[in-house]
Amino acid sequence: MSEVLVVIDHADGVVKKPTYELLTIARRLGEPSAVFFGAADQADEVASLVKAYGAEKIYVIDDTELKGYLVAPKAEALQQLAEKTAAAGGVAAILIPSSFEGKEVAARLAIKIGSGLITDAVDVQEGPVTTQSVFAGNFTVTAKVTQGTPIITVKPNAAAPEEAAGAGVVETFTPTISDGAKTAQIIATQPRQATGRPELTEAAIVVSGGRGTGGNFEPIEKFADSLGAAVGASRAAVDSGWMPHAFQVGQTGKTVSPQLYVANGISGAIQHRAGMQTSKTIVAVNKDNEAPIFELVDFGVVGDLHSVLPAATEEIVKRKA
Ligand code: FAD
After folding, report:
1. What residue ranges define each of the domains in the chain, with the CATH number in brackets?
2. Ligand 1 centroid vs 312 CA: distance in angstroms?
3. β-pairing, 205-209 with 151-154?
4. How high does pLDDT run on average in the chain?
5. Which pLDDT value is given to residue 67?
6. Taking the CB of the first residue and of the last residue of the chain, which one, N or C, has fewer CB atoms within 10 A?
7. Which residues contact ligand 1 via a Cβ below 6 A?
8. How far apart are CA 286 and CA 252, in angstroms?
9. Using CA atoms, how far apart are residues 37 and 59, in angstroms rounded to an integer?
């Protein structure tokens, strides 16, 4: 069976959930091989995690030399790994997390190996045949790469991670990075202050607030914390200065696809829907029973969020205790 290369999404060796989703998808397409760009001394720990989701091999690419540069060295390393793997037994697909960096690496890789590229897939099935939600979520596109090795960037929550034992054989791969790939150097990085909540685009549950909050996000945040959810916001809330732009969901913000999306005091404008309508279950709290958001919900509550959310939070906390 041909290998499916899966680029591991991690932060300093801490493997993120999208990796397990990608490995679950990879098993539909061939034999999953995880690719770890990171510190060599973290490789065994990472390998023990990803092999539980079916990784037969883990290619370790020590990034000591690569991480001081932008994306070009990673694309070169993947090109060389893909060529080596293709020569050894074939590559059925290359799956990369759909982050900004992931998409840029994927695009460069596609050019280097002369392959087709599909970005922002929300599902990948045998073939590989992908599903994308495009044009502000107005169309669902089914697509297939017709040239070379399919390179697919996959959005978080595209699959529910399923465990499956893999061999987890660790193999070090040392690419040769050209001088040309080192022409954009990272001078400084500053980590964003942690909120203690999951990352918006990766969270299984997202609780968002809009203009209807009146600028008071406390009920939203408390409700989110009771569920272990990420907090999101509509553009009206962001433009009013109530929340930073990093929290904005929608056409000009982030696209989320969680298991559960709870929209509070959000009318449901098309530009907001564009960022959340592929959520698996949608719940809305709005005091206007004719708000357009109710057209796409699975469950709607007509009421004032300032009383509905504290009551719901209290009940959830009580039931958890
Ligand atoms: P409103 O439309 O004002 O809705 C507020 C809702 O809150 C109403 O339905 C009201 O009934 C309800 N409400 C009020 N008080 C309460 C209460 N106490 N309890 C419960 N409900 C209450 N928008 C985005 O969100 N994301 C984007 O990325 C985005 N990109 C855009 C790009 C372009 C090019 C353009 C033109 C617009 C974009 N917008 C985007 C803006 C979008 O068109 C809407 O203006 C915006 O989504 C409205 O935000 P809202 O639903 O919070 O506010």
Report:
1. 3-182 (3.40.50.620), 205-320 (3.40.50.1220)
2. 23
3. unpaired
4. 95
5. 85
6. C
7. 210-212, 234-237, 248-253, 265-267, 269, 271-272, 275, 285-288, 291, 304-306
8. 23
9. 9
